[in-house]
Write a structure and sequence with these properties.
It comes from Sphingomonas plantiphila. Its EC number is 3.5.1.68. The chain has 266 residues and is α/β, with parallel strands linked by helices. The protein is 30% helix and 15% strand. The model has no long low-confidence stretch (mean pLDDT 96).
């Protein structure tokens, strides 16, 4: 299901990976529904709920990324050539563990069905909101809200920075927007990087057209910024108001800066 909460400000917060729902016809094919939910951007929808009070529009899907990843290239092309990453309909977890029982992986027809049922509606909703807000504002910011475990050896070395800003190597938004967000992270004394391991997914790359007034930027939070991460055996961690409040101290000015940036464009 796609959930859209409409605001009138020049900011869209897109949340493609917080969903945990797995349809009944897919669940029996999986090795474990719990394993299938392990790579969710846990609680990100709850973390960014405050954005509506700033005037932002929020869009999210309640469907698990294991079913289909709405932030991947629908053609199936990898976003990070030469690096491990999961696909449009992932077959393995971020740790490389199989998601499906042998012989139960989705074939081409099943992938096409999922695209029509889940991927296309998400992007139709997103395009509708982009067009609506562009009619109201000279420019808008599309902010892709993500999170990931702080340590995922198969995806990256060591411990991830807390705030990972992606701009598709400067192509998806004006450089001053990325600089302002990075400056807020620095002021908050939070570790951060611009266009490091995470440069932005398909949504950021596809919709980011600064010359047409759509500035797209991705924020990949290390989960320790808003929850106390736990060992895999104890997953998932619980929502933590204290950790979330600490994250909000940086996220509120970041989103406000994005709105101010969009309003300043001519």
């Amino acid at each position: 299901m796609i959930v859209t909460v409409r605001g009138e400000g020049p900011l869209i917060v897109s949340i493609p990976h917080a969903g945990l729902e797995i349809p009944e016809e897919i669940a029996p094919r999986l090795v474990s529904p719990a394993r299938a939910r392990h790579d969710a951007d846990l609680y990100v929808d709850q973390l960014y709920a405050f954005a509506f009070k700033l005037g932002a529009t929020l869009i999210r899907t309640t469907t698990s990324r294991t079913v289909i990843d709405v932030n991947r290239d629908p053609s199936g092309q990898t976003l990070y050539p030469g690096q491990f990453t999961t696909g449009l309909c992932p077959l393995v977890t971020f740790d490389g563990d199989p998601l499906y029982q042998p012989g139960q992986e989705p074939d081409a027809a099943e992938i096409a069905r999922r695209r029509a049922a889940y991927f296309t509606p998400y992007h139709e909703a997103l395009r509708t909101e982009i067009d609506r807000l562009r009619d109201l504002h000279p420019a808008i910011v599309l902010y892709e809200a993500h999170s990931i475990r702080s340590v995922v050896p198969k995806l990256f070395d060591g411990r991830l920075s807390e705030f990972n800003i992606g701009t598709n190597s400067g192509q998806s938004c004006a450089p001053e927007l990325a600089r302002s967000i990075a400056a807020i992270c620095a002021e908050q004394q939070r570790s951060h990087v611009v266009d490091g391991r995470f440069k932005g997914g398909w949504t950021t790359r596809h919709y980011g057209q600064p010359d047409k007034g759509v500035h797209a930027i991705q924020m990949e939070l290390a989960m320790r910024t808003y929850v106390e991460e736990v060992p895999a055996a104890d997953w998932p961690p619980r929502w933590d108001d204290v950790h979330a409040a600490q994250a909000h101290a940086a996220l509120r000015p970041i989103l406000s800066a994005a709105i101010d940036f969009a309003k300043a464009q001519k």
